[in-house]
Amino acid sequence: MAEAYIVGAVRSPVGKKKGGLSTVHPTDLAAHTLKALVERTGVDPAAVEDVIMGCVMQFGPQSMDIARNAWLSAGLPESVPGVTIDRQCGSSQQSIHFAAQGVLSGTQDLVVAAGVESMSVVPMGSSVTAALEKGMPFPFGDMWVERYGKQEISQFRGAELMCEKWGFERDELERYAYESHQRAAKAVANGYFKEQIAPLNGVEDDEGPRADTTLEKMAGLKTLRDGGRITAATSSQISDGSGAILIASERAMRAHGLTPRARIVQLALVGDDPVYMLTAPIPATRRALERSGLSIGDIDVIEINEAFAPVPLAWLKEIGADPARTNPNGGAIALGHPLGGTGAILMTKLLHELERTGGRYGLQTMCEGGGQANVTIIERL
């Protein structure tokens, strides 16, 4: 049976909103990691058969197929095509799935999976806001309303609904967020991310972690909704960043002298309640583990996107994973969540942490708009 391997993985630093990467055009941000991936792997870029790039706000500077534009901006061969996809927050994790599936099918041998989002340049919700300003309909039409009624559909409401369902109080969310910052600050201080980051615009490290944050500071913040539990401190940070992964077949590795770093073990995708929106990592993880024949105890490193603190907390409670193996170097609450770039960034972190610690299996998952989730299991080689 065909196998798909990860040959290289690189990312930009994750910049804060209006931080050190905010003046970089999104296309240049993506081009930077694509160029770094080619340089670090030594692959012949003309041999790449496609560039699949996740980007959520495909509007303005991120429109017109940013995957193609970023590849060309990096000075890479015009013969290589590119396509931009949107599976909301999981866009570039889906890029990895599509790239791996192309290789597993035997129809492709070398594919780049990537992702980018500059939330400083193209704010979240820009495309919807622009449409509404022009009098165009909201994304949910009459048939949606017929099925789900006229109710608020948002990640913020979904996070609060999760708190209610699983009984999470504000102080528990803040303790989790505090630990995320502590882990991330330690990882930055110890240089755990250095090898995986391609510095850009004078930024060498992730800008989000706050080593000096305290539970007292978090307790003083206003909730995002009246009577709610979620605050900015227990939510992912608005960020800028990109990542790129090279996925290859055995034939491509032999032909181009490439060295595999990990094997794709399992790809899973599940839909769940779109009103709760953020719960799908739970059933998606169960499906991936069942199909792979692995148990959660077999997984050495886990990356679950911290869109909001109740997402990993509910996942931990339902799946029974070891908290010490879950986001061991902090997550999006501390490190940021550049939407379409996060999936590729998380995979880069996952691979490098497996290599740093000598772990064998890694699992990545994240919640996505519409109540969806991807799960990717890899084996370090």
TrEMBL record:
<feature type="active site" description="Proton acceptor">
    <location>
        <position position="367"/>
    </location>
</feature>
<feature type="active site" description="Proton acceptor">
    <location>
        <position position="337"/>
    </location>
</feature>
<dbReference type="InterPro" id="IPR016039">
    <property type="entry name" value="Thiolase-like"/>
</dbReference>
<keyword id="KW-0808">Transferase</keyword>
<comment type="similarity">
    <text>Belongs to the thiolase-like superfamily. Thiolase family.</text>
</comment>
<feature type="domain" description="Thiolase C-terminal">
    <location>
        <begin position="259"/>
        <end position="380"/>
    </location>
</feature>
<feature type="active site" description="Acyl-thioester intermediate">
    <location>
        <position position="89"/>
    </location>
</feature>
<dbReference type="InterPro" id="IPR020617">
    <property type="entry name" value="Thiolase_C"/>
</dbReference>
<dbReference type="InterPro" id="IPR020616">
    <property type="entry name" value="Thiolase_N"/>
</dbReference>
<protein>
    <submittedName>
        <fullName>Acetyl-CoA C-acetyltransferase</fullName>
        <ecNumber>2.3.1.9</ecNumber>
    </submittedName>
</protein>
<dbReference type="InterPro" id="IPR002155">
    <property type="entry name" value="Thiolase"/>
</dbReference>
<dbReference type="InterPro" id="IPR020613">
    <property type="entry name" value="Thiolase_CS"/>
</dbReference>
<feature type="domain" description="Thiolase N-terminal">
    <location>
        <begin position="5"/>
        <end position="250"/>
    </location>
</feature>
<dbReference type="Pfam" id="PF00108">
    <property type="entry name" value="Thiolase_N"/>
</dbReference>
<dbReference type="Pfam" id="PF02803">
    <property type="entry name" value="Thiolase_C"/>
</dbReference>
<keyword id="KW-0012">Acyltransferase</keyword>
<dbReference type="GO" id="GO:0003985">
    <property type="term" value="F:acetyl-CoA C-acetyltransferase activity"/>
</dbReference>
